[in-house]
């Protein structure tokens, strides 16, 4: 039985979603909803960060784009629920049932919080713990489960196409017959995981712990098993390793990488977490950063001519004044980053990806997702946007070719 006050809130939320008068987005932050039956409820875009939903039933519920940051979700039933693009960072979802659920594009990374000074602040639950969860037949394509704790979970027949599982703990997990094409498992702990019948072509297994894993029982052709930092230039390798530690320990150890002005021409920086790195005025011409995370990175006035940033997460990064001439940004992900305070609450401030004043002549943005980016006064002549999704971007003073004008102006807001 849903309490009257919650029922009224859900009614108001339905009005909000449909654009009717009197509607208001559901605010359930820090609410105690333990054991609640919310099956089939529409909580799309609801704010539920730090809520306690332990033991609740949300089967068949609509939770797409819902904010479940650092929520307590132990023993929840999410079977056949829609959690696409939901924010589950830092959530604790032990023994939860996600069978048949849609988690496409969901974010289950640890709940790292950056404050206004780019210092890490930790919420109540710093790690995404989904150990013992049932994800069988769930759709997790393109989901982000970086560093998530998934030990003993059931992913049998799940769709893990291009899912980010880098650094995740998948020990003793059941991955039989899972679709794992091009999955990112860099640094993951897969000890004794069962991958029988899994489709793992093109998977990135660099630095993964594979003790007790029989890859011969899976389709593991074209997998990459090189160490993730082996090719990083020796003079900055220790800096990069300390930065990785700084990220994964929520700032408790390590240090932010300060690489402003460094000469990193043709450097191999692939598949690294470089969130909030300082690359101001650095020379990265011809460098390889494919698959890396550059979230909130400072790249102001850097030289990235001919660099490869394909499949990078550049959300909230600053490329103002950069030289991106001829660079590859194919498949990059970019959206405004909502800033949070030390308690995990939204501050109301968002940071967009900035290309203002940059030279992006002949830059390749094919298949990129660019939401809310600032291209003011940017040179986009000859840039390619084939199959790109460009929404709500600022284009004041930008220069681009006639054939791109229709694309950009129909998908972006000047």
Can you tell me about this structure?
Helices cover 10% and strands 6% of the residues. The protein contains 3 helices and 9 strands. A hairpin with a 5-residue loop joins strand 4 and strand 5. The termini are far apart.
Topology:
Elements: H1 4-18, E1 113-114, E2 120-121, H2 234-248, E3 333-334, E4 337-340, E5 346-351, E6 369-371, E7 379-380, E8 389-391, E9 399-400, H3 402-411
Short characterization:
This protein is largely without helices or strands and 414 residues long. It has helices at residues 4-18, 234-248, 402-411, and strands spanning 113-114, 120-121, 333-334, 337-340, 346-351, 369-371, 379-380, 389-391, 399-400.
Radius of gyration: 21 Å
Report the end-to-end length measured between terminal Cα atoms.
48 Å
Average residue pLDDT: 87
Largest sheet: 3 strands, parallel
Give the H and E element order: HEEHEEEEEEEH
Please state the overall shape, judged from the principal axes of the Cα atoms: globular
With strands numbered from the N-terminus, the spatial order across the biggest sheet is 3-6-8
């Amino acid at each position: 039985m849903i309490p009257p006050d919650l029922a009224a809130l859900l009614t108001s939320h339905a009005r909000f979603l449909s654009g009717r008068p009197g509607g208001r987005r559901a605010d359930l932050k820090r609410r105690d909803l333990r054991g609640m039956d919310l099956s089939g409820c529409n909580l799309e875009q609801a704010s539920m960060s730090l809520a306690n939903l332990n033991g609740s039933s949300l089967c068949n519920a609509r939770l797409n784009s819902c904010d479940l940051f650092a929520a307590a979700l132990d023993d929840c039933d999410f079977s056949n629920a829609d959690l696409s693009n939901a924010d589950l960072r830092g959530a604790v979802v032990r023994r939860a049932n996600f069978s048949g659920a849609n988690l496409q594009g969901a974010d289950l990374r640890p709940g790292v919080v950056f404050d206004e000074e780019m210092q890490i602040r930790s919420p109540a639950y710093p790690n995404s713990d989904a150990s013992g969860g049932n994800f069988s037949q769930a759709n997790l394509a393109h989901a982000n489960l970086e560093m998530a704790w998934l030990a003993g979970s059931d992913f049998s027949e799940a769709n893990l196409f291009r899912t980010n599982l880098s650094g995740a703990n998948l020990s003793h997990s059941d991955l039989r017959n899972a679709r794992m094409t091009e999955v990112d498992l860099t640094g993951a702990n897969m000890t004794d995981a069962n991958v029988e019948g899994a489709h793992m072509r093109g998977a990135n297994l660099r630095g993964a712990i594979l003790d007790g894993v029989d890859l011969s029982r899976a389709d593991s052709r074209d997998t990459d098993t090189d160490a993730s930092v082996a090719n990083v230039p020796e003079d900055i390798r220790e800096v990069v390793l300390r930065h990785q530690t700084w990220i994964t320990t929520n700032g408790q150890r390590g240090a932010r990488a300060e690489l402003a002005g460094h000469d990193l021409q043709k450097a191999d920086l692939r598949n690294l977490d470089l969130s909030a790195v300082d690359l101001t005025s650095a020379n990265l011409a011809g460098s390889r950063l494919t698959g890396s995370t550059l979230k909130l990175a400072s790249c102001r006035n850097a030289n990235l001519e001919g660099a490869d940033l394909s499949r990078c997460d550049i959300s909230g990064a600053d490329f103002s004044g950069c030289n991106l001439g001829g660079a590859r940004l194919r498949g990059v992900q970019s959206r405004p980053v909502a800033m949070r305070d030390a308690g995990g609450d939204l501050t109301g401030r968002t940071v967009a990806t900035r290309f203002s004043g940059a030279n992006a002549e002949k830059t390749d943005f094919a298949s990129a997702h660019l939401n809310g980016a600032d291209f003011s006064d940017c040179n986009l002549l000859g840039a390619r946007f084939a199959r790109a999704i460009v929404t709500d971007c600022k284009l004041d003073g930008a220069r681009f070719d006639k054939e791109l004008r229709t694309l950009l102006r129909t998908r972006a807001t000047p």
